[in-house]
Amino acid sequence: MLVRPRNPLNIGAAARAMANFGFDDLVVVAPFDPVWREARSAVGAGAVLKAARMTDHLPEAIGDCSFVVGTTTGSRRNLDRGPVPLTELTSAPRKLPPRTHAAVLFGPEKTGLLNDHLSYCRLVVRIPTTEGCPSMNLGQAVAVCCYELARAAEFPRSAATGRVHSSPPAQVQSLDHLIDRAARVLDRAGYFKPKGRPAQLLKLRRLVLGLGLSNHDARVLGGVLAQIEWKIKAG
């Protein structure tokens, strides 16, 4: 939720950041006219802007939310509580029941969220910026928070399926085949010393197991070794 944004470019940048990390529910609270009407394009985020809602008052915007997070540098406010680290943005909502409505508030570019806005927040977070330049651009702040939320949810997700792009860890059997092929290639390349081969194989095994390869990784590396082995035989 963007509270009283002034610059249409920032609204577009915020929408694009949301689209980048898989978020699509944008609410703009009491935007400065004609800013809202000018914010009509953002690369890859047209759907986010088209579906965005506008309200005149913050209580109306957060009326269906059970958990509200405010963002602030804390440098220009006498807060009744200290801002928590950005990591709390993800740890606290994890404790909420499923399908709980939550919101993250971002304040106006000129002032940030006021104490009145923050009074609605159950949590106030601060992006760890330097004291010399604590305030971030609105669009960039939205991007940082969206990234943190998406990272905690094991992003990136497939736009087509909504599933996380991941491959399960490689099984020991697959890794054994990979190590055997690597050993054959190294034998042909003259890497092993006759007396030291058993110890070197143990080191190779520890190395491969320590890489934490996925099934996909093991297939790629196996293909590389197979090509090398074929080339050595052909030569």
What's the gist of this structure?
The chain is of the alpha/beta class and 235 residues long. The protein is built from 10 helices and 7 strands.
Integer average pLDDT = 84
> Which regions have little confidence, pLDDT < 50, spanning 5+ residues?
156-165
N-to-C order of helices and strands: EHEHHEHEEHEHEHHHH
Judged by helices, strands and strand pairing, the structural class is alpha/beta
The domain tally reads 2
Fold-level CATH name of the largest domain: Alpha/beta knot
Count every beta strand, where a strand is a DSSP E run of 2 or more residues. 7
CATH A-level architecture of the largest domain? 3-Layer(aba) Sandwich
Beta-strand share of residues: 5-15%
CATH class of the largest domain: Alpha Beta
Characterize the biggest β-sheet. 4 strands, parallel
Radius of gyration: 26 Å
CATH superfamily of the largest domain: SPOUT methyltransferase, trefoil knot domain
The residue fraction in helices comes out at 40-55%
Query: How many H/I helical runs?
Result: 10
Q: Biggest sheet, strands in spatial order?
A: 5-7-4-6
How far from one another are the termini? 64 Å
Q: Given the C-alpha coordinates, what overall shape results?
A: elongated
